[in-house]
TrEMBL record:
Pfam families: Peptidase_S13. The lineage of its organism: Bacteria, Bacillati, Actinomycetota, Actinomycetes, Glycomycetales. GO terms for biological process: peptidoglycan metabolic process; proteolysis. Belongs to the peptidase S13 family. This is D-alanyl-D-alaninecarboxypeptidase/ D-alanyl-D-alanine-endopeptidase.
Length: 521
């Protein structure tokens, strides 16, 4: 193992490559991976890393023998590498067959086309519920002969608590879909399953000076649009959501004849959003609601299920979750774990201990790390790189490992649901289709942790976590990963270092590339 940090005791014993043992001077033999260590040391001499904090650990996947360690025990903000912990714990605690349920229930029975009582829409956190799925629930109710609900529509989101945002999430991220609120009832506007968000579409008017046209996907009256955008000039639009409201402002200009500009925005209080979408679905299916919409009340005991819908299994949900680094999936899974294991409302307070218990069983030193949420959006998360490599090595023994492993982004796999956030990185290198790793991005935070097979066929685990840099350093991560993929024991690496092509499109600093729509990677 090559360590960059040398203790004073070791320095006292080691001078000019010799050590004293029982009065005899013995020369050091070169360790098998010294050439690799030298190559990695050279990469880390990059001036962009001056005054930053970087930890790098490389280990053999079988047995977790460390072969390179640079600040591996340094606590660092992991960004979306936090999802490695959450996803693995969810597979252990919930199982790959776990599904989220959404149903309709009432204490009243349909009679002569009427349901004389309140109708409960009850959720358990399904992040994959589209407007079309709410329409299917309404269609099932219509098929049962219901034409009128003589009562209120009650949105039951009590499977989870009402804490919507994670600890220490940046307020500046709050309007955007990647920082959406977590609720047991929610809506996704697309098949990336970006739960709790709405797509704001802006089109130019017919002529210069005309007001821009704004539509929402899915259509909803729950969100109000304040549109002052005009047609003409260059396209320069700003879309925002006022704090604590569902007023979305659209301002600026859009060029005549320009294509649609779409922005994905979070919705305040997703439970009400889901209720609005379902109420619209009832109307579309010819079912009249005579009462009001109420939020956050528990379905009464004795209520009978009238229609239900199950999500895809967790084993399938892992794909959009991990490949596209979906924050809402992570937070939903934390609350689902808490609910399943405690029998109480799902919450961060009872879900995160489930993750910790899992990590303890994997042999991690959980006293050395802190997990504040499931996604990594919180800057309170602190995880040393050597804990990632320990976990990555240990997970290979899990019965569900193959399913989980395939959910990792893959270097230079062009399909976005295969390559994910790595689909444009490390192309035309030995790392292409070889590196399976989770990316992570926040402002001045980047991380890459996962698996790679070297030139000898040896499977390695690695973790690279960098904090406090001023300019982009993701190519340094790529150089390290490509070096690992290129390395053969006993053969010197190119003294000029590896060459890493730059992606054609890059996300703004601090964002996962999959968070930029249309996708930047």
């Amino acid at each position: 193992m090559r360590k960059r940090t040398v203790t004073h005791a070791a320095v006292a014993l080691a001078v000019a490559g010799v050590v004293a043992i029982a009065g005899t001077v013995v020369a050091h033999a070169q360790e098998p991976d010294d050439d690799l260590a030298k190559a990695l040391d050279t990469i880390l001499e990059d001036k962009r890393l001056d005054d930053s904090q970087i930890g790098v650990v490389v280990a053999e996947a079988e047995g977790n023998k460390t072969i390179y360690d640079h600040n591996g025990n340094m606590r660092a903000i992991p960004a979306s590498n936090n999802k490695i912990l959450t996803s693995a714990a969810a597979m252990d605690a919930l199982g790959g067959d776990y599904r989220f349920d959404t149903d309709l229930a009432s204490k009243a029975k349909p009679h002569n086309g009427s349901l004389r009582g309140d109708l409960y829409l009850r959720g358990t956190g399904d992040p994959t519920m589209l407007a079309a799925d709410y329409e299917k629930l309404a269609a099932k109710l219509a098929k049962a002969g219901v034409k009128k609900v003589r009562g209120d529509l009650v949105a039951d989101d009590t499977a989870y608590d009402d804490v919507r945002l994670g600890t220490e999430w940046g307020w500046e991220d709050e309007p955007y879909y990647y920082a959406a609120q977590t609720s047991a009832l929610t809506v996704a506007p697309d098949e990336d399953y970006d739960a709790g968000s709405v797509i704001v579409n802006v089109d130019p008017g017919a002529a210069e000076g005309d007001k821009a046209k704004v539509t929402l996907t899915p259509p909803t009256g729950y969100v109000e649009v304040d549109n002052t955008a005009k047609t003409g000039g260059e396209t320069d639009l700003t879309v925002d959501r006022k704090h604590g409201t569902n007023i979305i402002t659209v301002s600026g200009t859009i060029a005549v004849g320009d294509e649609t500009t779409s922005e994905y925005m979070s919705v305040n209080e997703p439970t009400g959003y889901a209720a609005d979408i379902f109420a619209r679905a009832l109307k579309a299916k010819g079912i009249k609601l005579t009462g009001d919409i109420r939020l956050g009340e528990t379905t009464p005991s004795g209520a009978k299920t009238l229609a239900e819908r199950q999500s895809m299994p967790l084993s399938e949900l892992l794909i959009p979750f991990m490949k596209l680094s979906n924050n809402m999936h992570a937070e939903t899974l934390v609350k689902a774990m808490g609910r399943e294991k405690t029998g109480e409302q799902g919450s961060w307070d009872n879900g995160l201990p489930v993750v910790k218990s899992f990590l303890d069983k994997q042999g991690l030193s959980t006293s050395r790390l802190r997990q504040a949420d499931g996604s990594g959006m919180s800057r309170w998360n602190l995880i040393p790189p050597d804990q990632f490599t320990t976990l990555l090595s240990k997970l290979r023994d899990a019965k569900w490992f193959d399913t989980w492993y395939k959910s990792m982004p893959i270097a230079c796999e062009p399909d976005r649901l295969v390559g994910g956030t790595l689909r444009s990185r490390m192309c035309d290198t030995p790392a292409e289709k070889n590196v399976y790793a989770k990316t992570g991005s926040l402002t001045s935070v980047t991380a890459l942790s996962g698996y790679v097979t070297d030139a000898d066929g040896r499977e390695l685990v690695f973790s690279i976590v960098t904090n406090d840099y001023l300019t982009g350093v993701k190519d340094i991560e790529d150089k390290i990963a490509v070096t690992l993929a290129s390395y053969s024991q006993g053969e010197s690496l190119d003294k000029d270092g590896v060459k890493v092509p730059q992606p054609e499109k890059e996300a703004p600093s601090g964002l996962e590339c999959s968070w930029v729509k249309p996708i930047a990677c």
